[in-house]
Amino acid sequence: MGATRRPTIKTVAARAGVGRTTVSRVLNGSPLVSDEARAAVQTAIAELGYVPNSVARSLVTSRTDSIALVIPESESRLGSEPYFSAVIRGVSNGLAGTQIQLLLTLVRDQREMDQLTRFLTARRVDGVLLVSVHRDDPLPGLLEELGLPTVLAGRRSPAESLNHVHSDNIGGARDAVRHLVERGRREIATITGPADMDVADSRLRGWRDALGEAGREACGELVAPADFTEEGGRRAMRGLLERRPGLDAVFAASDVMAAGALAELRRQGRRVPDDVAVVGFDDSIVARHTDPPLTTVRQPVEEIGRTITELLLREIGEPGGVRQHVVLPTSLVVRDST
């Protein structure tokens, strides 16, 4: 009696009524498959007991079935900033149902950058997701030179050439400041992120645009640079109050910095929102647990994580496509701080 033949991709395709390319796309987690076809393939796999031979597939395709999520930040920043955990959740959700493994890599110093460069040059992963992008970061340029599929959460500048996804940072900041103007606030300051990050520059531009619409001057004394940390927000708020003690509102470019600003206002005996109104950006868990709860701009961070993952899987599965630039909408969430 002959042994039962092991099912192949061809067998699965015949059972599902689709082509072998479609089966391969489902196995590789490509988003370029309809829900109906995906369901048919998954049903056929279950009925036939098909087990993909990932080792054989990798030998043929030079695929590793893994991607890297690179975050050039320290462990302390990763743990204190809810943005990063939300992106990681979104990426994980984007990989659900695929056989792709996720490698999380922090880059904290030059030694780790050199190590990562060697790793990527050896093409140990099929693609890279890069978060927390700085203008002069050499990594995006290296990835582009290597031709390694890459998607950024954010961008180096408005002229970004790589696939990237970001929230409507200008529009969100503009909405925040318009809200403060509508509340009757006259002297509206801002706490910005690092000057070498497009996200910080875009939110600063939104602040300027909204003040210009209202016929207000975007005075340099009302701008306080910080670093997206709580302590940075506290120091920036202290400096603003020293320069402009009569200010009655502040837009912070992140909820974490807004929390620091609230702490400094409380220390100096300023009431929120009676004396000074405060708006943040992110609508992270931080915004719901400040005192008072924080008015903020909601950005869909988990959706950013899912979207960058979908774009990366598409580029891995169908290389050479048109580069994608996706902007996700924001919305204002009004709470007690304004």
From TrEMBL:
UniProt entry keywords in alphabetical sequence: DNA-binding, Transcription, Transcription regulation
SUPFAM superfamilies: lambda repressor-like DNA-binding domains, Periplasmic binding protein-like I
Record-annotated HTH lacI-type domain positions: 7-61
Domain of life, per lineage: Bacteria
Xref: InterPro entries: HTH_LacI (IPR000843), LacI/GalR-like_sensor (IPR046335), Lambda_DNA-bd_dom_sf (IPR010982), Peripla_BP_I (IPR028082)
Keyword DNA-binding among UniProt keywords: yes
Protein name as catalogued: DNA-binding transcriptional regulator, LacI/PurR family
Annotated organism of origin: Streptomyces radiopugnans
Lineage: Bacteria, Bacillati, Actinomycetota, Actinomycetes, Kitasatosporales
